């Protein structure tokens, strides 16, 4: 996993033997075990790492009015009961441009108003709720539908 993993050597002296993984990948999910020997005593710690993946096809930034697929998956082992999507903290799809199929969001014509924070929440049969947030960028024109811009000859127009 090198060079994505590290230990903070200075923290080891204070009893903190945390492992840092950056960036986390889907294949990193699983059970981790740490053994620390302190004089003649051995301390063992078990930690399970779960990974949630938010996928946008195509990846952000998305071009306005081009098809978009958003999905959310987790390494959690229980059965998935429900997937909820929130856009800028509101339960979505409130916009007419989205439809949902098995927890996956589809949009044939995403608009500039669809940009921003998207939060997926996965609920499992063991009542575990797992969530992740993704910031979607959309490239397009955010202005009047038939803009007319006047500029003086010899000047710059924006």
From TrEMBL:
Membrane topology type: Single-pass type I membrane protein
Function of the protein: May function as a ligand for MHC class II (MHC-II) on antigen-presenting cells (APC), promoting APC activation/maturation and driving Th1 immune response.
Domain Ig-like: 50-131
Subcellular location: Cell membrane; Secreted
Keywords: Adaptive immunity, Cell membrane, Disulfide bond, Glycoprotein, Immunity, Immunoglobulin domain, Membrane, Repeat, Secreted, Signal, Transmembrane, Transmembrane helix
Name of the gene: Lag3
Protein name as it appears in the record: Lymphocyte activation gene 3 protein
Quaternary structure and interacting proteins, as annotated: Interacts with MHC class II (MHC-II); selectively recognizes stable complexes of peptide and MHC-II. Interacts with FGL1 (via the Fibrinogen C-terminal domain).
An example Gene Ontology molecular-function term: protein tyrosine kinase binding
GO biological process: adaptive immune response; interleukin-15-mediated signaling pathway; positive regulation of ERK1 and ERK2 cascade; T cell activation
Gene3D superfamilies in the cross-refs: Immunoglobulins
């Amino acid at each position: 996993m090198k060079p994505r993993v590290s230990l903070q050597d200075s923290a080891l002296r204070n009893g903190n033997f945390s492992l840092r993984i950056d960036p986390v990948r889907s294949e990193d999910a699983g059970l981790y075990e740490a053994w620390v020997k302190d004089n003649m005593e051995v301390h063992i710690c078990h930690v399970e790492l779960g990974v949630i993946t938010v996928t946008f096809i195509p990846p952000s930034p998305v071009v306005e009015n081009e098809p978009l697929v958003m999905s959310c998956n987790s390494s959690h082992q229980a059965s998935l009961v429900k997937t909820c999507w929130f856009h800028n903290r509101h339960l979505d799809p409130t916009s007419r441009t989205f439809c949902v199929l098995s927890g996956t969001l589809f949009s044939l014509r995403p608009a500039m108003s669809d940009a921003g924070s998207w939060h997926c929440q996965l609920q499992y049969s063991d009542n575990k709720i797992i969530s992740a947030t993704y910031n979607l960028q959309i490239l397009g024109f955010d202005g009047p539908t038939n803009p007319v811009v006047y500029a003086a000859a010899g000047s710059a127009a924006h």
